[in-house]
Amino acid sequence: MSAASYIGRVGGLAIALGVGTAIITGQGVAYADDTGTSVSRPSQSQTDSPRGDSATLDKRPLGKHRSTERTTLSDTVKGIADRVAEERQKRAEARADDADSVDESPLSRAGDRRQKRTETVAGQQDSAKTEDVSAPAADPEPAAAKPRVLSWLQSPRAVAGRQQAAEPQVQTTLWTPPDRAAQDAPARTVVAGLLTALDRAFSPASSGNGSAPVGGSLSDLLLLAGARRESTLAAIDDYSVGVVQGVISGCVVGTTCTTADGSTYTVIDRPSNGGKLTLDATTGAFRFLPYADENATNGPTGTETFSVLVAQNTKFTTVITGLPIVGSSLITPVVQRLQQAGVLSGLLGTAELQDISVDITGLRDGAPIAFTTFVTSWDNTKISTNFFPALAGSPDLGNPGYETIFNGPGLAQPGATDPADPFVSTFRSLGYNVVTWDPRGEFASGGVLQLDSPQYEGQDVSELISWVATQSGVQLDKAGDPTMGMVGVSYGGGIQFVTAASDDRVDAIAPGWAWNTLPDSLYPHSAFRTSYAGLLLLGLVETGARINPQIYGGILTGASLGILTPAQIQLLQTSGPGQTVRNIDIPTLIIQGTVDVLFPLHQSLINMGYMANNPNVKLIWYCGGHGTCLPGQGNGEADDVWFLTETAVWMQRYVKDLPIPADPYAFEWTDQNGDRWASVTRPTADGFYDDESKVPATVWNTGKTLPIIPFIGGSGPSPDVPLPYGLGDGSVATNAVTIPLTNPAGEANVVGAPHVVINYSGLGSSRHIYAQVVDKSTGLVVGNIVSPVPVTLNGRDQVAEIDLEDIAYTMTPDSDLELQIFTTATPFLNFTQFGFVHIDSVEVTLPTTSAGVNQGPNLVAV
């Protein structure tokens, strides 16, 4: 449950490339699903076909393709239809010969279906393109016999583009064999120039001076492509489809999804009725959630179809489609169409369409299956919703239905469609239905994202609850009120607070990594959390989210100037739980990460404090969250299992009402050793902290002057965390005031916020300096967390007194902790900060508690 699993799932470079590609192509932005490859995001009126990945199949020769003889563009356009028609006829005859030698079965008629498809739907708009590629109506050749790429090549638009010049048209070769390239170099065409440029880029042996390729990797590819080759793709086997644990799944080719021959798989036509398809681009394995009408109460029926392109690529296509930015967005669609048409097959490889039909009614056979639908919210916004039935079997007279768990996704993530998702699989196996959804403004849902606003996203979930109450197999507390709980982390944690505060049909919640107010999280002490705010924004842009424009403005203002306007602060203030948490009176399990650098531990204390009158509230601090649990900071693997186990037990106790003994502890946490501590007293209650800290106060008065220059000598990024997420973490600062902290006489639990008093003076434009606690024994910042400290640099003596971010650390007489004070930090990077500050003296007090009982190492079995 690392940050990378929930926040965007893309590196900074990948995000930037995705955003750039979307701008260059002008197409809908692709979005991410668990499996890897992407397809264009559908319009609001469609359901979402999750991105595909892929698979492979055995190499089988398929009849001869034409060679890559040198030809002119005009000759190609004029004669290509005849050659392709002839080739397709040969392939059809070859398939017929093969079929005569094999027994026919119900699942071996893919060739017939593809032929029928060619005769009926050739020239339709390709789902991967945004423009119409149908054949012109006036074309004398029947559309049924013409591949889609030919329709475009002979369309009036394409012809006009080739004949714009008034002077005689110059014949241009599509490709020049390597042995002719040198003598033809002065008259290189655009394509030849591109190949030469590619050679210079990829071949160490290239001259690099603009001359023709002289050897090396790309030259070898061209030589290979120049030779006559037999076709590389045989008539593909039929597909297989079935139901596994209530989810429709199968293989695009055959009954076993493999990577045997390097084929790639791409969705060409999305599911006909709007179901959600997840395709593995290297194995051809797929999962499918069929579409059910919102008003249906018994799930989906009927048939849905979709088409997948099965391609056998060459080394050449592998190189050009793998080019940064343009490879997947511009080159791949063209290559796929040429492969389908059989054009330049020796150079580009071949491909065939696999048409897949899913008989939903037949596959169900009376049993419930997972499906997707749209639920209409209060303002007519369509919310894309997924329903997974419980795995305990169909309800009977003695069991009218199953309890339901609502699992909200993180920001910039769609609702889970993978049955192996930890929350989905865990709760289905325990006998719950599971509901997931795309939040407002994201992926297949309509509307505009409002950051878990009670007035928008909160009301959306209330509508989902009402819809679930109408479905078969759902246990109800009363009419319109399903027996239900909510789980999820980050954005999916915040929505739990928001929903439970206003809808009393929710029976229990377990919010993880959530926040109380966004200003406290993104703008603590008026310091803008630049790195993570930028990551969140780029994740939303990369996935094509529709965002309230004020959110863009706030992030841009914060990143460039380090400040937010009052209106921007007000927007953040109304986005999320806030004081509405006071209204929650149901069992609530709050889980926060000790290494969470976006929503720090303090956010959980605010939420718990607001629920002082709710007797069924428990708080867990574990080594996780929006951050990375590094060695020496706890046992992250065990804590992840602890997180999921505690969440499941909480729902079993308070949603299923199983006779599980009440947990006596109100607060549990893990320390840097992986030991789990437990207290019956809440950390927000009087009496939790020791009257006098067991760790003596540290006083430092040596004095030191620090320059204020962005980046220079400050904290972050973490060298132990991959970029871009390491930008939000602290690291040991090299230009800092370093203060060794006094150790206790015995063991002491530091659980909370170190209190710091700083006497200083200085001049400059900076409004903050920064502080952190460093564990010298590991070389890590405790909790990876950096705290901003507001300062006034007007040349006068000043005093800054502040509580730093909360930490959890067990100190001993041998501990080696120090406080660092410095002037720049990548988590709060601000390019407007310059000047100097003189730190005159510092006093540090650490909060300790004796309320915890050591439960020993957290050794939850994985």
Automatic annotation (TrEMBL):
Domain Xaa-Pro dipeptidyl-peptidase C-terminal: residue ranges: 648-847
Pfam families (alphabetical): Peptidase_S15 (PF02129)
Record field: compositional bias (Polar residues): 35-49
One MF annotation (Gene Ontology) recorded for this entry: dipeptidyl-peptidase activity
Compositionally skewed regions (Basic and acidic residues) per UniProt: 56-69, 80-98, 110-119
Domain of life: Bacteria
Annotated stretches, region: Disordered: 34-146
UniProt keyword list: Hydrolase
SUPFAM superfamilies in alphabetical order: alpha/beta-Hydrolases
Tagged with keyword Membrane: no
Claim: Hydrolase is one of the keywords in the record: yes
Classification via Gene3D superfamilies: alpha/beta hydrolase
Composition bias type Low complexity, residue spans: 135-146
Protein name per UniProt: Peptidase S15
Lineage: Bacteria, Bacillati, Actinomycetota, Actinomycetes, Mycobacteriales
